[in-house]
Amino acid sequence: MTLFDHFVFNMFQYYKPKFKAKANIISLVYITFLQASLVLLLGVFFSIFFRQMNVDTMSSSKAWTIFGLAIVVIYFKNWMSYSGRKRRVLNAKLTKKKAQYFNIWTLWLLPFGCIILAMLLLQKF
């Protein structure tokens, strides 16, 4: 199991008692938001790296278009994998053994930390 699987399971378990029907949607939106913020951070890092190496690969508007398409692909990949059978299998696997639980505030600060770091990198260069 990947770290993202653990994050989805923790979000699902936290929101399941409060929002019974919406817990899966919240965990799906969270993991998509986290992965999109990580893609943004990597994209900004490589953009700065290529700019300093004087490599002219693509324009900024094309890079943002590819980023938007990547978010759509990430959402549908997560929707396909975490909406049905895989989530039930994860639930069965992680309830049998002691699962690794993360603080909900830490989980929500991860994507925002990545976005803040990406914004700082964009402002610096």
Sum this structure up briefly:
The chain is mainly alpha-helical and 125 residues long.
Describe the overall structure.
This protein has 125 residues and is an all-alpha fold. It has one domain (3-124). Helices cover 79% and strands 0% of the residues. It is built from five helices and no strands. It has helices spanning 3-15, 23-52, 60-82, 85-96, 104-124. It starts with a helix and ends with a helix. The mean pLDDT is 87.
Radius of gyration from the alpha-carbon trace, in angstroms: 17 Å
Termini gap:
37 Å
Number of E-state strands: 0
Going by helix content, strand content and strand pairing, the class is: mainly alpha
Could you tell me the strand content as a percent range? Answer: under 5%
Order of helices and strands: HHHHH
- Put simply, the count of helices is 5
Question: What does the secondary structure layout of this molecule look like, with pairings?
Answer:
Layout: H1 3-15, H2 23-52, H3 60-82, H4 85-96, H5 104-124
Features of this protein?
single chain; 125 residues; 5 helices
